[in-house]
């Protein structure tokens, strides 16, 4: 028998995060392309980001047939937030700059690369990247390297660079609560054994 689930944040009703999800405006439009394997993941941070940003859209799939339409949003220039040797570092908007449609693949690194492989139009987008000095708050997963962030963390960091001095930190409140809840559920001994400092 499954537990009742919140229809908005998809968390069990007893652990609903909706009260912590902000309602933020951004000049940047965020398009999240989520691999289907992430939809029912307990730590679905892309959904939290999409719910907390008014100018965001979450689309689930592997092959996005409507990608040309999704990427062609009048008034925005599409950029893929994904590492590459030729990725441009994000920088603050000048007043005359056209805002970005920031396309963010969501999944494990392997699944995100698969999304790019299956959607050549996506892979062909000019890429932008974050500084790789960021440290993730995702205490339940070992990051594959410096700058490896959860989806919501990457979006917050990107928006805070582009739209400085605006703060998008409220997007991290439900994320932090989610992590704290997972740690509490496993208990301090199990957490320390599996995720403690090595």
Automatic annotation (TrEMBL):
Domain DTW: 2-187
EC number, as in UniProt: 2.5.1.25
Transferase in keyword set: yes
GO biological process: tRNA processing
Pfam families for the chain: DTW
Keyword annotations of the record: S-adenosyl-L-methionine, Transferase, tRNA processing
The protein, known as: tRNA-uridine aminocarboxypropyltransferase
UniProt xrefs under InterPro entries: DTW (IPR005636), DTWD2/TAPT (IPR039262)
Top EC group: transferase
KW tRNA processing (keyword) present: yes
UniProt similarity note: Belongs to the TDD superfamily. DTWD2 family.
Gene Ontology MF annotations: tRNA-uridine aminocarboxypropyltransferase activity
